[in-house]
Design brief:
2 domains; 2 strands; mainly alpha; 13 helices; microtubule binding; disordered C terminus; microtubule; 1% strand
Length: 326
């Protein structure tokens, strides 16, 4: 009687392992993408899930062979579960990283992956919970990416204008640009269009700045951009100093020759160039929301301006008060 009771307990344990805690044999098969043929071998076992212990005894499922087969199958699937779990989770992580990468958001992918792997290998996390969490992150990332689209479109337009500005400066330095060489006519046309585009840079920068500030205020977070495009902030001090020297030279020239009409914004000259970008233009560093101050007060305020972290393009919360004086 005692031996029969022990056998019943063993069967109950197996049934609990199959059906309990939402880790059913069928669930493991589904996770492992087990084909129907292999699942069919255990039809007599899966019927245990909906059966009581008495029904199991009546059906004759207490055979030692059935018990051993079930134990082996469950152990095999549990052994595969960790690797399959890692595969599924990392697949979702790849999707998440792709979303962030497409909208120029810099994240520590190595740290995120290692955290996930540690969770999986610890065995202290439910697969369904982890996958659900990853799905929520992906949904939030897609929503965030969509909200950034308008700003990123303006960033791309500014970058194009900036590249055309650099090309125009190099073109205007070329003493042979008017020669009848090959491609000269195309370059003249490009230069004409570039001058028009460059003249719009101040407006583009103001518009971009406004959009980023609005985005930040709406979401109470900084507008992050990838590191490679946000490295202009270290030039802020150089830009300000260069503008100061320009103003000093202009004052000296005015004292000698009298005042002259100011040159329209957006018109490039070879004497107004540093690192390929006209410095006197407000569009010099739009991604960092910095521009060269044009008054003594603004220069004094700019000394206390906090330079944004290298992977952020927008003003930090402390920058808003300073930027209003710009």
């Amino acid at each position: 009687m005692s031996e029969f009771h022990d056998t019943q307990l063993k069967i109950a344990h197996i049934c609990a392992e199959i059906a309990g805690n939402d880790k059913t044999l069928m669930g493991l098969w589904d996770l492992m993408d087990t084909n129907v043929e292999e699942q069919g071998k255990f039809d007599h076992v899966t019927s245990l899930v909906s059966s009581s212990l008495d029904e199991v005894s009546i059906k004759g499922c207490l055979a030692l062979e059935v018990i051993e087969q079930t134990e082996v199958e469950v152990e095999r699937l549990n052994a595969l579960k960790a690797s399959k779990m890692k595969e599924l989770v990392l697949k979702r992580q790849n999707e998440l990283e792709a979303i962030y990468r497409d909208v120029h958001m810099d994240i520590d992918t190595d740290a995120a992956r290692q955290t996930l792997i540690n969770l999986i290998e610890s065995g202290n996390v439910e697969l369904s919970d982890l996958l659900s969490s990853m799905d929520n992150q992906i949904a939030n990332a897609k929503e965030l990416a969509l909200s950034r689209k308008e700003v990123l479109d303006k960033v791309e337009k500014w970058k194009h204008a900036y590249e055309e500005e650099k090309w125009l400066e190099d073109y205007e330095k070329d003493e042979n640009r008017y020669s009848a060489g090959r491609g000269a006519h195309k370059n003249l046309k490009r230069a004409e269009k570039a001058r028009i585009l460059v003249s719009k840079i101040p407006f583009m920068v103001e518009n971009l700045t406004s959009k980023v500030k609005g985005w930040e205020l709406e979401r109470d977070m900084s507008f992050q951009y990838n590191k490679s495009a946000a490295t202009m902030s270290p030039f802020v001090h150089i830009l300000q100093e260069h503008r100061r020297l320009q103003e000093q030279m202009a004052a000296e020239q005015e004292a000698i020759y009298g005042s002259r009409p100011k040159k329209p914004l957006g018109q490039s000259t070879t004497n107004n160039t540093m690192i390929g970008t006209p410095i006197g233009r407000r569009g010099a560093t739009p991604l960092g929301h910095h521009h060269a101050p044009s008054t003594g007060k603004e220069r004094r305020e700019s000394r206390y301006h906090n330079v944004a972290p290298i992977n952020y393009v927008a003003l930090s919360k402390d920058d808003h008060s300073v930027s209003r004086g710009a």
